Amino acid sequence: MPESLIVSFVGDDRPGIVRVIADVVAKHGGSWQESRMSGLGGYFSGTAKILINPDCLEALDQDLQGLAGLTCIIRPLREASPSKATQKMKLDIVGPDRPGILQDVTSQLVGYGINVLEMETEVSPASMSGELNFIADALVAVPSEVDIESLDKQLDAVAKNLGLDILFEEVSGD
Fold this sequence. Notes:
Layout: E1 3-12, H1 17-27, E2 31-40, E3 43-52, H2 57-65, E4 70-76, E5 86-96, H3 101-111, E6 115-125, E7 132-143, H4 148-162, E8 165-170
Antiparallel strand pairs: 1-3, 1-4, 2-3, 5-7, 5-8, 6-7
Helix pairs in contact: 3-4
C-alpha cells in the first residue's frame, strides 16, 4: 500500500529544480500529490506531499540526497490529530517596518491558541512616501471558544502601539 510522505527542499534558485525533484520521484514510482513552493532571496524552496510504495522509500531518499545543490528532507506524513473546532480567519497587517512586528502580533495569536496556516510577508516602499512598509497576509485557525471581540481589542492595542493597521476577519465561504 502506498505511503504518503513530505519532501522539503531548498537550493539556489535556478530553472529546473522542480523538474529534477519530480524526475527522482517518478523514477521511484512516486506520485506528486500537493506542494507549496517559492523563490526568495536567491533560493528556491518547497514542500511536497508524495505518495510512494514503502519499498522505494530508501532509494528515493538516497537519490534526493544525491542531488547537487539541493538539500532535501523526507518526513512521514502526520495524520491530523482530532482537534478542537476552529474557524479560518484572515489576518492582514500593514504599517511602517520595524523589528519585532511579527513577534508582537503572533505573541497575541498564540495566547489565544491560534494556529497560523499560511502566511506571506514582505517589506516594500509605500506608494506616496516611499517609507518602507511591512505587509503580512495570513490565514489562521481560530479555536471556536476564542472570544473574537477580546482578541480584536488585543490586536487593536498592538496595532495602536506599533502604528499598524491590523485587519482580522472571517474568511467568506468557510
